[in-house]
Amino acid sequence: MIELTAAQENVRVRALRFSEERLAPRAADRDRVGEFAAEDLKALGRAGLLTVNVPVAHGGLGAGVVSYVEAVRALAQGCAGTAVGMMVTNMVAEAISHFGTPEQRARHLRPLCAGEWPAAAFCLSEPESGSDAASMRATATREGDRYRLNGVKAWITSGGEAGVYLVTAKTDPAARAKGVTAFLVPAGAPGLSASPPEKKLGLRSSVTTQVVLEDCLVPASERLGEEGEGFKVMMSSLDGGRVGVSAQAVGVADAALAHLRAAYERAPTAELADALARSQAERDAAWLLCLRAARLKDAGETLTQQASISKLYCTEMAGRVCQRALRAQGAAGHAALGGVERLMRDARVMRIYEGTSEIQRLVIAREALRAGARGA
Ligand SMILES: Cc1cc2nc3c(=O)[nH]c(=O)nc-3n(C[C@H](O)[C@H](O)[C@H](O)COP(=O)(O)OP(=O)(O)OC[C@H]3O[C@@H](n4cnc5c(N)ncnc54)[C@H](O)[C@@H]3O)c2cc1C
After folding, report:
1. Does residue 354 have an active-site annotation?
2. Can you give the residue range of the structural domain that contains 310?
3. CA distances from 327 to 321, 340, 341 (A)
4. Residue of minimum CA distance from atom 24 in ligand 1
5. Which of 57, 84, 157, 285 is the most exposed place for a label (fewest CB within 10 A)?
6. Ligand 1 centroid – CA 127 distance (Å)
7. Which contiguous run of DSSP H or E holds residue 234?
8. Residue 160 C-beta-side C-alpha neighbours within 13 Å
9. CATH number at residue 191
10. pLDDT, tens digit, for every residue of 101-123?
11. For a pocket test of ligand 1, which of 36, 91, 131 has the largest count of ligand atoms closer than 8 A to its C-beta?
12. Residue 51: CA count within 13 A, CB half-sphere
């Protein structure tokens, strides 16, 4: 659709091969038993595909955001649950690369880039604070050259499996966003633990847990950025994260489209032609929005609104395409065989995490007003 550079094409082809050979054949079984693909994620790390958008100077692949979305799309076609582990890891790795000290990069980025750890975790949400993340209750109290962290983080992707946790807590509990500070907490740190995995509708090969902080002592050298900068760290990560979720949704739509094409080949009815044509057109429009946001990020431009437009459209599109593919299969689509019904379950959560569709609409509308005020 849009020509890739040789380097971008190389990432796309390698990710697609990995997805077809290692992820797709096991995706239905992993969904059924809720198996986390630790070894596959480490293999992705060794291939540079866990840290596609981390600069080479910091140990990553340095292949840029267009390459990253191509990789996510390819992996999500095979197994969207494994893809989300890769996406969150890349997001945390980018934050460490951007905001971290050389010592933090050596401690946490190097093992991620080398595939020694299967994942990194991004700990923002709490049981009582999701969309309104600034209302978080976790606290970090300074005690000399360390901080004491207490609180509960909720719905954490790769909880209990990650090598490092990017955690936010309030150093100024009376303040909202400006009171939030970010920390890097290694797995196994005393006082950090993960709950048993949540039972989920979809993405069952991704482990999601609470991460509990009980008098967890973190050296001040593990603070990521300055005190009060934690919200900035997390929100700048989420702009890029939303582009990743967009690509994940397009990957799932691509897998559903294959089922729709097969249904139309079997029964070339006008109804199936209509479903296939609508789905293909919407999928292509979605992918263009995703690529636009990816290119903006590659160019170092602001992408808040474009990332939200992309995420909103791509994730809602994936839901519609999966529904049509399910309908095209009749009763077979309803059978719990890990086929289209898995894709539909996997796609649903993409409208929730990294900001729900309602929150994306608020961001888009807010940015539209700002652009209007600038006369843009
Ligand atoms: C599988 C999975 C993996 C996740 N992984 C992570 C992770 O790795 N790290 C992490 O930090 N979090 C993670 N999350 C949490 C996710 O980001 C939150 O669930 C999401 O932000 C929504 O928050 P909430 O669930 O508290 O819903 P709420 O914020 O309580 O929202 C409930 C409903 O109200 C609507 N709503 C809320 N506020 C408004 C508003 N102002 N205007 C209009 N409508 C509104 C929402 O759109 C939603 O429909 C994950 C969630 C899931 C399900």
Report:
1. yes
2. 231-371
3. 10, 10, 10
4. 130
5. 57
6. 10
7. helix 230-266
8. 13
9. 2.40.110.10
10. 999 999 999 999 999 999 999 99
11. 131
12. 34
Q: Closest ligand 1 atom, CA of 356?
A: 47
Q: Is 141 exposed, middle or buried (0-12, 13-18, 19+ CB in 10 A)?
A: middle
In the chain, how many domains are there?
3
Residue 117, SS3 per DSSP: coil
Domain check: are 301 and 364 in the same one? Answer: yes
Do 47 and 18 form a contact (C-beta atoms < 8 A)? yes
Each residue's pLDDT tens digit, 221-245: 999 999 999 999 999 899 899 999 9
User: What does DSSP assign to residue 199?
Assistant: P
Q: State how far the Cα of 93 lies from the Cα of 287, in Å rounded to an integer.
A: 24
Which tokens sit at 285?
């429009």
- Quote the strand ranges of the chain, DSSP E: 120-123, 139-143, 146-157, 164-170, 180-186, 192-194, 208-219, 223-224
Determine contact, residues 26/79, Cβ cutoff 8 Å.
yes
pLDDT 10s digits, 280-317: 999 999 999 999 999 999 999 999 999 999 999 999 99
Rounded to the nearest whole angstrom, what is the distance from the C-alpha of residue 157 to the centroid of ligand 1? 13
Helix (H, G, I), strand (E, B) or coil at 147: strand
Sign of the torsion angle spanned by Cα atoms 58, 178, 85, 339 = negative
Say if 241 falls within a structural domain. yes
Q: Best mutation site among 183, 203, 252, 353 for ligand 1, i.e. most ligand atoms within 8 A of its Cβ?
A: 353
- pLDDT-derived band of residue 336, with 50, 70 and 90 as boundaries? confident
